[in-house]
Amino acid sequence: MFATKSIERIEAEQLGHGERTLSRVLGPGQLIMLGVGAIIGTGIFVLTGQAAAANAGPAIVLSMVLAGLTSVLAALCYSEFASSVPVAGSAYTYAYATLGEFVAWVIGWDLILEYALGAATVAVGWSGNLVTLLHQVGLGFPAAFSAAPGTVVQVAGGDPVTAVFNVPAVLITIAVTALLLIGVSESATVNAVIVIVKVAVVLIVIGVGACFVDPAHWHPFIPPNTGAFGEFGWSGVLRGAGVIFFAYIGFDAVSTSAQEARNPQRDMPRGILGSLAICTVLFVLVSGVMVGIVPYRQMLNEPAPLVVAVEAAAQRAAGTAWQGPLGVVKVLVTVGALAALSSVMVVMMLAQPRIFLAMSKDGLLPGWAGRIHPRYKTPHVSTIVTGVAVALASGLTPIGTLGQLVSIGTLMAFVIVSIGIIVLRRTRPDLPRPFRMPLVPLLPALSALVALVLMLGLPRATWERLLVWMAIGVVFYGVYGTRKSKLRGAAVQGEEAGPEDPAS
Asked: Using omega within 30 degrees of 0 as the cis cutoff, is the peptide bond preceding 434 cis?
């Protein structure tokens, strides 16, 4: 169960399949765009307002900084791994090389929470912003088909409606799946265009919104705790960081494209760290402006908090020269949110099939998960399966439940990757490392510790769902993985595993 696989063997298995391999077409600019495309999305356009209203208040800015620092530590770990192990699979592959097959399976199963459920969360946010945009231009959308079953949807000028299915979320999932089937180069091009649009929108919100900030809304900066953990006070800052951590998810998705990077040893660290640096600065600024325009409690359960902030600024500007431009900005924010969420879905749903691809190559998933389309050079079967799963989850599950599951799943991956760096430095000190994380083992240990602390700040119900999900994964591994594992099969047949591939 704890047999490891050498990095040389991993590279040989994933890169040695002739024509049926992924195409190396991505440069450093495209990798940075992929990272920014994945990071700027649901977290800032949807979940920020909820975390401010329920957990941190104006101190959501501190929550952003704490989550950002956690991400920087993890990003350094991912950068070293991605430059040393330039193949698909991300944290799953890194765990297989350092901590053994069982831990690799656990993290691979856990990553479904990050990428597939992450895409589903984004799809729900996309749906909410689409409905908002339609209302802004005078069009309606049936409330019953705009949210998860059982969700009470408020209707302007009418009685609340109980939703039965989230149709827009399913439709955007189908569209993204179709794009990803065509090819990674085409997907990256579409993503780059969308990223330019949404970064421009965020900059407009920061620039215009700063003119309408009311400093009184920042006081008290850290609202007093209500007596319950996570409801304001410093525990609220911690809980807010755990919830809003979803905003930073995405830089690690860049590492799943290592096998499609033209020069992964040089460009993967640039893509990971560059995208994270850009987004951290934007997040801190936009969250500060947002809670400076609108009292934080007004953003509870708002699916489009930035739109609420711009609307508040427009009301304050009524009768002035700002009134017209702010009306345009309000529509631009909604369009930017739709663009932002679309690009996040592209990257998340690009990453998940590549995890399945790596697991299939090891025999831990059925062979269909590793099939590469002969023309498009994409893992087409696993892309379709991912699309179906995301569509069902987004159509049937509320965004709050999805978001917290994604956060805890990602933090768990960060803990394992951070530990993996320490282990690999000890077991393979000779391994070429084009990018080296500084201060090992101190910084990787700190990365794992901070990620664990953020996990502990999440609600008990989220932990319970995580444990149930992981229990299902362990059962699947026991029933299928232990019998089909290629590493185990080689050991049984008496093949030489080598010094880095212990057969027992």
From this structure: no
Nearest to 4 by CA among 88, 98, 82, 93: 98
For residue 27 the two structure tokens come to 């440069």
Would you say residue 441 has pLDDT above 80? Answer: yes
User: CATH number, domain at 117?
Assistant: 1.20.1740.10
Residue 19 structure tokens: 């024509």
Q: Domain of residue 57: give its range.
A: 34-489
Highest mean pLDDT among 158-162, 301-305, 349-353: 349-353
Residue 284 has pLDDT above 50, yes or no: yes
Contact residues for 213 (Cβ-Cβ < 8 A; gap 6+): 289, 292, 293
User: Is 229 within the bounds of a domain?
Assistant: yes
Q: Are 277 and 269 in contact (CB under 8 A)?
A: no
* Start-to-end CA span in the chain (Å): 8
Nearest Cα to Cα of residue 437 among 447, 427, 451 = 447
Across 239-271, b (16+ Cβ under 10 Å) vs e yields bbbbbbbbbbbbbbbbbbbbbbbeebbebbbbb
Longest dimension (CA), the chain: 82
Report how many domains make up the chain: 1
